[in-house]
Protein backbone atom coordinates (compact mmCIF):
# COMPACT_ATOMS: atom_id res chain seq x y z
CA UNK A 1 0.00 0.00 0.00
CA UNK A 2 1.30 3.42 -0.91
CA UNK A 3 1.90 5.74 2.00
CA UNK A 4 -0.76 8.44 2.40
CA UNK A 5 0.30 12.01 1.78
CA UNK A 6 -0.48 14.03 4.92
CA UNK A 7 0.87 17.43 3.90
CA UNK A 8 1.39 18.72 0.38
CA UNK A 9 3.24 21.99 -0.25
CA UNK A 10 3.06 23.61 -3.68
CA UNK A 11 5.01 26.61 -4.91
CA UNK A 12 5.44 28.11 -1.46
CA UNK A 13 7.26 31.42 -1.53
CA UNK A 14 8.06 33.19 1.70
CA UNK A 15 9.27 36.73 2.26
CA UNK A 16 10.26 38.86 5.21
CA UNK A 17 9.72 42.38 3.93
CA UNK A 18 11.65 42.46 0.65
CA UNK A 19 13.94 39.52 1.49
CA UNK A 20 12.89 36.23 -0.06
CA UNK A 21 13.63 33.31 2.26
CA UNK A 22 11.97 30.47 0.38
CA UNK A 23 11.09 30.35 -3.32
CA UNK A 24 8.73 27.93 -5.06
CA UNK A 25 9.04 25.15 -2.52
CA UNK A 26 7.34 21.84 -3.36
CA UNK A 27 7.29 19.04 -0.81
CA UNK A 28 5.18 16.16 0.52
CA UNK A 29 5.05 14.65 3.99
CA UNK A 30 3.70 11.15 4.58
CA UNK A 31 1.22 10.17 7.26
CA UNK A 32 2.76 8.68 10.38
CA UNK A 33 6.29 9.36 9.18
CA UNK A 34 9.00 11.47 10.72
CA UNK A 35 10.39 13.90 8.20
CA UNK A 36 13.47 15.93 9.05
CA UNK A 37 14.23 19.32 7.57
CA UNK A 38 17.94 20.10 7.74
CA UNK A 39 20.21 22.89 6.59
CA UNK A 40 22.29 25.76 7.86
CA UNK A 41 20.91 28.31 10.31
CA UNK A 42 18.99 31.31 9.09
CA UNK A 43 17.93 29.75 5.79
CA UNK A 44 14.24 29.45 6.54
CA UNK A 45 13.80 26.07 8.21
CA UNK A 46 11.73 27.47 11.06
CA UNK A 47 9.94 29.74 8.65
CA UNK A 48 8.94 26.70 6.64
CA UNK A 49 7.36 25.08 9.71
CA UNK A 50 5.41 28.24 10.47
CA UNK A 51 4.00 28.20 6.95
CA UNK A 52 2.39 24.83 7.67
CA UNK A 53 0.20 26.06 10.55
CA UNK A 54 -0.02 29.71 9.48
CA UNK A 55 1.88 30.86 12.56
CA UNK A 56 3.86 33.16 10.27
CA UNK A 57 0.83 35.45 10.33
CA UNK A 58 1.92 36.41 13.86
CA UNK A 59 5.29 37.60 12.57
CA UNK A 60 5.33 41.26 11.52
CA UNK A 61 6.47 41.77 7.93
CA UNK A 62 6.18 38.12 6.94
CA UNK A 63 4.36 37.15 3.78
CA UNK A 64 3.67 33.69 2.36
CA UNK A 65 2.36 32.77 -1.09
CA UNK A 66 1.54 29.36 -2.44
CA UNK A 67 -0.58 26.42 -1.35
CA UNK A 68 -0.36 24.04 1.58
CA UNK A 69 -2.81 21.15 1.91
CA UNK A 70 -3.26 19.02 4.99
CA UNK A 71 -5.24 15.77 4.93
CA UNK A 72 -7.66 15.86 7.87
CA UNK A 73 -10.48 13.32 8.43
CA UNK A 74 -9.85 11.87 4.98
CA UNK A 75 -10.12 15.19 3.09
CA UNK A 76 -7.34 17.41 1.84
CA UNK A 77 -7.84 20.91 3.16
CA UNK A 78 -6.16 24.06 1.98
CA UNK A 79 -4.75 25.74 5.10
CA UNK A 80 -5.37 29.22 3.71
CA UNK A 81 -9.04 28.44 2.97
CA UNK A 82 -11.07 31.20 4.70
CA UNK A 83 -13.71 28.66 5.72
CA UNK A 84 -11.08 26.66 7.63
CA UNK A 85 -10.62 28.34 11.03
CA UNK A 86 -6.97 29.00 11.74
CA UNK A 87 -7.48 28.07 15.41
CA UNK A 88 -8.65 24.59 14.37
CA UNK A 89 -5.70 24.27 11.98
CA UNK A 90 -3.26 25.09 14.79
CA UNK A 91 -4.84 22.54 17.12
CA UNK A 92 -4.53 19.82 14.51
CA UNK A 93 -1.10 20.90 13.28
CA UNK A 94 0.54 21.58 16.64
CA UNK A 95 3.96 23.04 17.19
CA UNK A 96 6.87 22.73 19.61
CA UNK A 97 9.45 25.49 19.65
CA UNK A 98 13.22 25.56 19.88
CA UNK A 99 13.29 27.12 23.33
CA UNK A 100 10.74 25.56 25.69
CA UNK A 101 7.97 28.08 26.25
CA UNK A 102 5.73 26.95 29.11
CA UNK A 103 2.83 29.30 29.79
CA UNK A 104 3.04 31.16 33.12
CA UNK A 105 0.71 28.78 34.93
CA UNK A 106 0.77 25.36 36.61
CA UNK A 107 1.96 22.17 34.94
CA UNK A 108 -1.59 20.87 34.76
CA UNK A 109 -3.00 24.07 33.31
CA UNK A 110 -0.26 24.19 30.69
CA UNK A 111 -1.20 20.79 29.31
CA UNK A 112 -4.92 21.51 29.69
CA UNK A 113 -4.61 24.86 27.89
CA UNK A 114 -5.51 23.58 24.39
CA UNK A 115 -8.54 21.84 25.92
CA UNK A 116 -9.65 25.04 27.62
CA UNK A 117 -9.25 26.84 24.29
CA UNK A 118 -11.45 24.21 22.62
CA UNK A 119 -14.13 24.87 25.22
CA UNK A 120 -13.83 21.60 27.14
CA UNK A 121 -15.32 22.22 30.59
CA UNK A 122 -15.45 18.66 31.99
CA UNK A 123 -12.70 18.50 34.63
CA UNK A 124 -12.63 14.71 34.80
CA UNK A 125 -12.13 14.38 31.05
CA UNK A 126 -9.47 17.10 31.13
CA UNK A 127 -7.59 15.29 33.91
CA UNK A 128 -7.64 12.09 31.86
CA UNK A 129 -6.37 13.79 28.71
CA UNK A 130 -3.66 15.63 30.64
CA UNK A 131 -2.44 12.40 32.22
CA UNK A 132 -2.41 10.63 28.86
CA UNK A 133 -0.52 13.49 27.18
CA UNK A 134 2.05 13.64 29.99
CA UNK A 135 2.55 9.86 29.80
CA UNK A 136 3.06 10.02 26.05
CA UNK A 137 5.60 12.81 26.61
CA UNK A 138 7.49 10.68 29.19
CA UNK A 139 6.85 13.24 31.90
CA UNK A 140 4.02 11.80 34.00
CA UNK A 141 6.16 9.94 36.54
CA UNK A 142 8.28 13.03 37.21
CA UNK A 143 5.43 15.47 37.70
CA UNK A 144 2.38 13.48 38.85
CA UNK A 145 2.77 14.72 42.44
CA UNK A 146 3.39 18.34 41.52
CA UNK A 147 0.80 19.12 38.88
CA UNK A 148 -0.22 22.34 40.66
CA UNK A 149 3.33 23.71 40.64
CA UNK A 150 4.41 26.50 38.33
CA UNK A 151 5.62 24.95 35.07
CA UNK A 152 8.59 27.29 34.94
CA UNK A 153 10.15 25.50 37.92
CA UNK A 154 10.80 22.41 35.79
CA UNK A 155 14.22 21.74 34.25
CA UNK A 156 14.84 22.64 30.60
CA UNK A 157 14.35 19.08 29.35
CA UNK A 158 11.22 18.67 31.45
CA UNK A 159 9.87 21.97 30.15
CA UNK A 160 10.37 20.82 26.57
CA UNK A 161 8.59 17.54 27.28
CA UNK A 162 5.82 19.57 28.91
CA UNK A 163 5.52 21.61 25.71
CA UNK A 164 5.30 18.38 23.73
CA UNK A 165 2.60 17.13 26.12
CA UNK A 166 0.73 20.42 25.64
CA UNK A 167 0.95 20.00 21.88
CA UNK A 168 -0.29 16.39 22.18
CA UNK A 169 -3.23 17.25 24.46
CA UNK A 170 -5.37 18.49 21.57
CA UNK A 171 -4.81 15.15 19.74
CA UNK A 172 -3.07 16.76 16.77
CA UNK A 173 -2.68 14.98 13.43
CA UNK A 174 0.65 16.66 12.78
CA UNK A 175 3.36 17.75 15.20
CA UNK A 176 5.88 20.33 14.03
CA UNK A 177 9.08 20.50 16.08
CA UNK A 178 11.55 23.32 15.60
CA UNK A 179 14.98 22.09 16.76
CA UNK A 180 13.37 20.62 19.87
CA UNK A 181 16.62 19.44 21.45
CA UNK A 182 19.04 22.24 20.62
CA UNK A 183 18.63 24.05 23.95
CA UNK A 184 18.99 20.83 25.99
CA UNK A 185 21.89 18.74 27.32
CA UNK A 186 22.69 15.36 25.76
CA UNK A 187 20.70 13.32 28.28
CA UNK A 188 17.56 15.45 27.98
CA UNK A 189 17.93 15.43 24.19
CA UNK A 190 18.19 11.63 24.23
CA UNK A 191 14.90 11.33 26.10
CA UNK A 192 13.17 13.59 23.58
CA UNK A 193 14.55 11.56 20.66
CA UNK A 194 13.23 8.36 22.19
CA UNK A 195 9.90 10.05 22.72
CA UNK A 196 9.72 11.15 19.08
CA UNK A 197 10.26 7.54 17.96
CA UNK A 198 7.27 6.41 20.03
CA UNK A 199 5.10 9.17 18.57
CA UNK A 200 5.83 8.09 15.01
CA UNK A 201 2.93 6.22 13.48
CA UNK A 202 0.23 7.85 15.58
CA UNK A 203 1.23 11.31 14.49
CA UNK A 204 2.90 12.85 11.47
CA UNK A 205 6.12 14.51 12.61
CA UNK A 206 8.09 17.25 10.92
CA UNK A 207 11.32 17.98 12.77
CA UNK A 208 13.71 20.79 12.01
CA UNK A 209 17.20 19.83 13.12
CA UNK A 210 20.79 20.56 12.42
CA UNK A 211 22.18 17.49 14.13
CA UNK A 212 22.83 15.08 11.25
CA UNK A 213 23.33 12.10 13.55
CA UNK A 214 20.01 12.79 15.19
CA UNK A 215 18.35 12.97 11.79
CA UNK A 216 19.88 9.66 10.71
CA UNK A 217 18.63 7.96 13.87
CA UNK A 218 15.10 9.28 13.61
CA UNK A 219 13.99 10.28 10.16
CA UNK A 220 12.11 8.35 7.48
CA UNK A 221 12.58 11.16 4.99
CA UNK A 222 14.98 14.12 4.90
CA UNK A 223 14.63 17.47 3.20
CA UNK A 224 17.47 19.93 3.00
CA UNK A 225 17.02 23.67 2.73
CA UNK A 226 19.37 25.03 0.06
CA UNK A 227 19.21 27.86 -2.47
CA UNK A 228 15.92 29.14 -1.06
CA UNK A 229 14.16 25.84 -1.63
CA UNK A 230 13.65 22.38 -0.15
CA UNK A 231 15.36 19.38 -1.74
CA UNK A 232 14.61 15.78 -0.94
CA UNK A 233 17.86 14.13 0.17
CA UNK A 234 16.67 10.70 1.24
CA UNK B 1 40.31 59.68 34.95
CA UNK B 2 41.08 63.09 33.47
CA UNK B 3 40.40 66.34 35.28
CA UNK B 4 37.46 67.05 33.03
CA UNK B 5 35.88 63.68 33.79
CA UNK B 6 36.28 64.25 37.53
CA UNK B 7 34.64 67.65 37.20
CA UNK B 8 31.74 66.26 35.18
CA UNK B 9 31.27 63.55 37.72
CA UNK B 10 31.18 66.07 40.57
CA UNK B 11 28.67 68.30 38.80
CA UNK B 12 26.38 65.39 37.99
CA UNK B 13 26.74 64.07 41.54
CA UNK B 14 25.76 67.44 42.97
CA UNK B 15 22.74 67.61 40.66
CA UNK B 16 21.64 64.15 41.78
CA UNK B 17 22.03 65.12 45.42
CA UNK B 18 19.96 68.27 44.88
CA UNK B 19 17.23 66.30 43.14
CA UNK B 20 17.13 63.81 46.00
CA UNK B 21 17.24 66.51 48.68
CA UNK B 22 14.40 68.51 47.16
CA UNK B 23 11.47 66.19 48.01
CA UNK B 24 12.91 65.67 51.49
CA UNK B 25 13.24 69.41 52.06
CA UNK B 26 9.61 69.87 50.96
CA UNK B 27 8.52 67.42 53.66
CA UNK B 28 10.61 69.23 56.29
CA UNK B 29 9.21 72.56 55.11
CA UNK B 30 5.65 71.30 55.58
CA UNK B 31 6.40 69.96 59.07
CA UNK B 32 7.92 73.30 60.08
CA UNK B 33 4.99 75.33 58.76
CA UNK B 34 2.42 73.05 60.38
CA UNK B 35 4.18 73.35 63.77
CA UNK B 36 1.82 75.94 65.32
CA UNK B 37 -0.97 73.33 65.07
CA UNK B 38 1.05 70.55 66.62
CA UNK B 39 1.68 72.65 69.75
CA UNK B 40 -2.04 72.68 70.60
CA UNK B 41 -3.37 69.55 68.84
CA UNK B 42 -2.21 65.95 68.62
CA UNK B 43 -1.71 64.20 65.28
CA UNK B 44 -4.69 61.97 66.09
CA UNK B 45 -6.90 65.02 66.68
CA UNK B 46 -5.95 66.41 63.31
CA UNK B 47 -6.30 63.17 61.38
CA UNK B 48 -9.56 62.01 62.97
CA UNK B 49 -11.35 65.26 63.88
CA UNK B 50 -13.90 67.38 62.04
CA UNK B 51 -13.26 70.72 60.37
CA UNK B 52 -14.88 73.48 62.44
CA UNK B 53 -12.35 76.30 62.58
CA UNK B 54 -14.76 78.67 64.37
CA UNK B 55 -14.96 76.15 67.21
CA UNK B 56 -11.22 75.67 67.07
CA UNK B 57 -11.36 72.24 65.43
CA UNK B 58 -9.02 71.68 62.52
CA UNK B 59 -9.49 67.97 61.79
CA UNK B 60 -9.14 66.87 58.18
CA UNK B 61 -10.86 63.47 58.34
CA UNK B 62 -13.81 64.55 56.11
CA UNK B 63 -11.41 65.74 53.43
CA UNK B 64 -9.28 62.61 53.66
CA UNK B 65 -12.40 60.48 53.34
CA UNK B 66 -13.66 62.45 50.34
CA UNK B 67 -10.26 62.24 48.64
CA UNK B 68 -9.95 58.49 49.14
CA UNK B 69 -13.56 57.85 48.20
CA UNK B 70 -13.28 59.87 45.01
CA UNK B 71 -9.90 58.41 44.01
CA UNK B 72 -10.92 54.80 44.64
CA UNK B 73 -14.27 55.21 42.88
CA UNK B 74 -12.65 56.83 39.85
CA UNK B 75 -10.13 53.99 39.80
CA UNK B 76 -12.99 51.49 39.79
CA UNK B 77 -14.66 53.29 36.86
CA UNK B 78 -11.44 53.82 34.88
CA UNK B 79 -10.11 50.27 35.32
CA UNK B 80 -12.45 48.35 32.99
CA UNK B 81 -12.40 51.12 30.39
CA UNK B 82 -8.59 51.28 30.44
CA UNK B 83 -8.26 47.50 30.31
CA UNK B 84 -10.52 47.44 27.25
CA UNK B 85 -8.69 50.29 25.50
CA UNK B 86 -5.29 48.79 26.25
CA UNK B 87 -6.57 45.44 24.97
CA UNK B 88 -7.68 47.01 21.70
CA UNK B 89 -4.32 48.76 21.38
CA UNK B 90 -2.51 45.50 22.20
CA UNK B 91 -3.98 43.88 19.12
CA UNK B 92 -7.57 42.86 19.69
CA UNK B 93 -8.53 45.53 17.17
CA UNK B 94 -7.22 45.73 13.58
CA UNK B 95 -4.32 48.17 12.99
CA UNK B 96 -6.71 50.72 11.42
CA UNK B 97 -8.22 51.18 14.87
CA UNK B 98 -5.14 50.50 17.00
CA UNK B 99 -2.91 53.28 15.71
CA UNK B 100 -5.42 56.19 15.89
CA UNK B 101 -6.66 54.93 19.27
CA UNK B 102 -3.15 54.94 20.68
CA UNK B 103 -2.57 58.48 19.34
CA UNK B 104 -5.86 59.67 20.80
CA UNK B 105 -5.04 58.22 24.20
CA UNK B 106 -1.60 59.84 24.15
CA UNK B 107 -3.19 63.15 23.20
CA UNK B 108 -5.75 62.86 25.99
CA UNK B 109 -3.05 62.48 28.67
CA UNK B 110 -2.01 66.03 27.80
CA UNK B 111 -5.40 67.74 28.21
CA UNK B 112 -5.34 70.31 31.03
CA UNK B 113 -7.69 69.27 33.83
CA UNK B 114 -9.46 72.62 33.72
CA UNK B 115 -10.96 71.56 30.38
CA UNK B 116 -12.55 68.53 32.02
CA UNK B 117 -13.65 70.84 34.84
CA UNK B 118 -15.36 73.25 32.46
CA UNK B 119 -17.24 70.52 30.66
CA UNK B 120 -18.24 69.22 34.07
CA UNK B 121 -19.55 72.59 35.23
CA UNK B 122 -21.65 73.27 32.14
CA UNK B 123 -22.81 69.78 31.19
CA UNK B 124 -22.50 67.38 34.06
CA UNK B 125 -23.49 69.51 37.05
CA UNK B 126 -26.87 70.58 35.56
CA UNK B 127 -27.51 67.00 34.41
CA UNK B 128 -26.80 65.56 37.87
CA UNK B 129 -28.93 68.30 39.47
CA UNK B 130 -31.92 67.51 37.26
CA UNK B 131 -31.52 63.77 37.19
CA UNK B 132 -31.02 63.13 40.91
CA UNK B 133 -32.62 66.32 42.33
CA UNK B 134 -29.29 66.71 44.14
CA UNK B 135 -29.17 70.30 45.40
CA UNK B 136 -26.77 72.36 43.33
CA UNK B 137 -25.57 69.32 41.40
CA UNK B 138 -22.04 69.82 42.68
CA UNK B 139 -21.21 66.55 44.40
CA UNK B 140 -18.78 63.62 44.38
CA UNK B 141 -20.61 62.03 41.43
CA UNK B 142 -20.13 65.16 39.29
CA UNK B 143 -16.41 65.05 40.03
CA UNK B 144 -16.17 61.28 39.68
CA UNK B 145 -17.07 61.14 35.98
CA UNK B 146 -14.48 63.64 34.65
CA UNK B 147 -11.84 62.42 37.10
CA UNK B 148 -12.29 58.86 35.79
CA UNK B 149 -12.08 60.20 32.26
CA UNK B 150 -8.91 62.07 33.18
CA UNK B 151 -7.05 59.08 34.61
CA UNK B 152 -8.24 56.64 31.94
CA UNK B 153 -5.65 57.65 29.29
CA UNK B 154 -2.79 57.46 31.79
CA UNK B 155 -3.97 54.10 33.03
CA UNK B 156 -4.44 52.87 29.44
CA UNK B 157 -0.84 53.73 28.59
CA UNK B 158 0.47 52.01 31.74
CA UNK B 159 -1.60 48.94 30.87
CA UNK B 160 -0.39 49.01 27.26
CA UNK B 161 3.20 49.00 28.49
CA UNK B 162 2.42 46.08 30.78
CA UNK B 163 0.90 44.11 27.89
CA UNK B 164 3.77 44.94 25.57
CA UNK B 165 6.19 43.50 28.15
CA UNK B 166 4.60 40.02 27.99
CA UNK B 167 7.33 37.80 26.47
CA UNK B 168 6.76 36.87 22.84
CA UNK B 169 7.42 33.11 23.25
CA UNK B 170 4.47 32.95 25.64
CA UNK B 171 2.22 34.64 23.08
CA UNK B 172 3.39 32.20 20.40
CA UNK B 173 2.78 29.27 22.72
CA UNK B 174 -0.81 30.39 23.24
CA UNK B 175 -1.40 31.05 19.54
CA UNK B 176 0.16 27.75 18.50
CA UNK B 177 -2.17 26.00 20.96
CA UNK B 178 -5.10 27.25 18.91
CA UNK B 179 -6.10 30.19 21.13
CA UNK B 180 -7.92 32.99 19.33
CA UNK B 181 -6.84 36.59 20.10
CA UNK B 182 -9.47 37.10 22.80
CA UNK B 183 -8.72 33.81 24.57
CA UNK B 184 -5.02 34.61 24.41
CA UNK B 185 -5.63 38.07 25.86
CA UNK B 186 -7.88 36.95 28.71
CA UNK B 187 -6.13 33.73 29.72
CA UNK B 188 -2.50 34.49 29.01
CA UNK B 189 -1.77 38.19 28.51
CA UNK B 190 -3.74 39.63 31.44
CA UNK B 191 -2.45 37.07 33.98
CA UNK B 192 1.14 37.55 32.76
CA UNK B 193 0.83 41.33 32.98
CA UNK B 194 -0.90 41.46 36.35
CA UNK B 195 1.99 43.05 38.24
CA UNK B 196 2.33 45.74 35.59
CA UNK B 197 -1.44 46.27 35.73
CA UNK B 198 -1.28 46.67 39.51
CA UNK B 199 1.56 49.18 39.17
CA UNK B 200 -0.49 51.14 36.62
CA UNK B 201 -3.45 51.18 39.02
CA UNK B 202 -1.34 52.47 41.87
CA UNK B 203 0.20 55.25 39.79
CA UNK B 204 -3.23 56.25 38.47
CA UNK B 205 -4.46 56.31 42.06
CA UNK B 206 -1.68 58.78 42.82
CA UNK B 207 -2.83 60.93 39.92
CA UNK B 208 -6.49 60.80 41.00
CA UNK B 209 -5.77 61.63 44.63
CA UNK B 210 -3.50 64.50 43.62
CA UNK B 211 -5.88 66.19 41.21
CA UNK B 212 -7.17 69.51 42.48
CA UNK B 213 -9.17 71.37 39.87
CA UNK B 214 -11.82 68.81 39.02
CA UNK B 215 -12.75 68.26 42.66
CA UNK B 216 -12.58 71.99 43.40
CA UNK B 217 -14.85 72.90 40.49
CA UNK B 218 -17.33 70.04 40.73
CA UNK B 219 -17.45 68.30 44.11
CA UNK B 220 -19.17 71.13 45.99
CA UNK B 221 -16.51 71.72 48.66
CA UNK B 222 -18.67 71.24 51.79
CA UNK B 223 -16.21 70.43 54.56
CA UNK B 224 -18.21 67.63 56.14
CA UNK B 225 -18.08 63.88 56.16
CA UNK B 226 -19.38 62.59 52.79
CA UNK B 227 -22.32 60.22 53.27
CA UNK B 228 -22.90 59.41 49.60
CA UNK B 229 -21.89 60.28 46.08
CA UNK B 230 -24.67 62.85 45.74
CA UNK B 231 -23.34 64.86 48.72
CA UNK B 232 -21.34 68.03 48.33
CA UNK B 233 -17.84 67.15 49.54
CA UNK B 234 -14.35 68.59 49.78
CA UNK B 235 -11.15 66.74 48.92
CA UNK B 236 -7.76 67.36 50.53
CA UNK B 237 -6.44 69.11 47.45
CA UNK B 238 -9.52 71.34 47.09
CA UNK B 239 -9.24 72.11 50.81
CA UNK B 240 -5.67 73.30 50.37
CA UNK B 241 -6.70 75.45 47.41
CA UNK B 242 -9.58 77.00 49.39
CA UNK B 243 -7.81 77.62 52.70
CA UNK B 244 -4.63 78.98 51.18
CA UNK B 245 -6.31 82.40 51.02
CA UNK B 246 -6.59 82.45 54.84
CA UNK B 247 -4.42 84.64 57.10
CA UNK B 248 -0.83 83.40 57.04
CA UNK B 249 -0.61 83.47 60.85
CA UNK B 250 -3.85 81.55 61.40
CA UNK B 251 -4.16 77.92 62.46
CA UNK B 252 -6.34 77.27 59.38
CA UNK B 253 -3.37 78.15 57.25
CA UNK B 254 -1.11 75.83 59.23
CA UNK B 255 -3.62 73.02 58.75
CA UNK B 256 -3.14 72.94 55.00
CA UNK B 257 0.40 71.74 55.58
CA UNK B 258 -1.03 68.76 57.42
CA UNK B 259 -3.12 68.10 54.30
CA UNK B 260 0.05 68.47 52.28
CA UNK B 261 1.83 65.89 54.41
CA UNK B 262 -1.03 63.42 54.11
CA UNK B 263 -1.05 63.83 50.32
CA UNK B 264 2.72 63.57 50.26
CA UNK B 265 2.70 60.30 52.19
CA UNK B 266 -0.17 58.88 50.13
CA UNK B 267 1.40 59.61 46.75
CA UNK B 268 4.89 58.56 47.91
CA UNK B 269 3.51 55.25 49.13
CA UNK B 270 1.70 54.81 45.81
CA UNK B 271 4.87 55.55 43.86
CA UNK B 272 6.96 53.23 46.05
CA UNK B 273 4.43 50.42 45.69
CA UNK B 274 4.33 50.89 41.92
CA UNK B 275 8.11 50.95 41.75
CA UNK B 276 8.41 47.72 43.72
CA UNK B 277 5.73 46.02 41.65
CA UNK B 278 7.38 47.07 38.41
CA UNK B 279 10.74 45.80 39.62
CA UNK B 280 9.09 42.51 40.55
CA UNK B 281 7.38 42.39 37.16
CA UNK B 282 10.72 42.83 35.42
CA UNK B 283 12.36 40.06 37.42
CA UNK B 284 9.38 37.88 36.67
CA UNK B 285 9.43 38.31 32.92
CA UNK B 286 13.22 38.32 32.64
Topology overview:
The complex is a heterodimer of chains A (234) and B (286).
Chain A lengths: L4 E12 L2 E12 L3 E5 L6 H8 L9 E11 L2 E4 L7 H7 E4 L10 H12 L4 H14 L3 H4 L12 H14 L4 E5 L7 H14 L4 E5 L3 H7 L2 E6 L2 E4 L2
Parallel strand pairs in A: 3-8, 3-9, 6-7, 7-8
Antiparallel strand pairs in A: 1-2, 1-4, 4-5, 9-10
Chain B lengths: L2 H38 L2 H6 L2 E2 L4 E2 L2 H32 L2 H15 L3 H20 L7 H25 L3 H9 L4 H12 L1 H17 L2 H6 L17 H8 L7 H35 L1
Description of the structure:
The complex is a heterodimer of chains A (234) and B (286). With 234 residues, chain A is an alpha/beta fold. Chain A is 34% helix and 29% strand. Chain A contains 8 helices and 10 strands. Chain A has a 6-stranded mixed sheet, with helices on both faces. In chain A, strand 7, helix 7 and strand 8 form a beta-alpha-beta unit. The mean pLDDT of chain A is 88. Chain B has a single domain, classed as MetI-like fold. Chain B is globular and about 70 Å long. In chain B, strand 1 and strand 2 form a beta hairpin. Chains A and B meet through helix 2, helix 3 and helix 6 of A and helix 7 and helix 8 of B.
Amino acid sequence: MDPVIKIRVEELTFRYGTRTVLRDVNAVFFEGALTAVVGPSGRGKSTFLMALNRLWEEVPGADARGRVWVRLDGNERLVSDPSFPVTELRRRVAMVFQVPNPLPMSIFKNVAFPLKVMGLRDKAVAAEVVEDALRRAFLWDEVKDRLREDARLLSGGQQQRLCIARALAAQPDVLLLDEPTSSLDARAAGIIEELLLTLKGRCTLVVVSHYLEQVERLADQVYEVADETLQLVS
Amino acid sequence: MTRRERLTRKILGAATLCAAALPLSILIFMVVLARPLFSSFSVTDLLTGTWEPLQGRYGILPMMTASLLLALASLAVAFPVSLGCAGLIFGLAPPVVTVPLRRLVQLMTGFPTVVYGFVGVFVLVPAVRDLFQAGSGRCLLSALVPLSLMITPTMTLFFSDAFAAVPRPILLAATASGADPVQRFVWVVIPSARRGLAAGMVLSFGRAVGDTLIALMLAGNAARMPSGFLESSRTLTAHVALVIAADFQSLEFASIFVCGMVLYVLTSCAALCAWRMRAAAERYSG
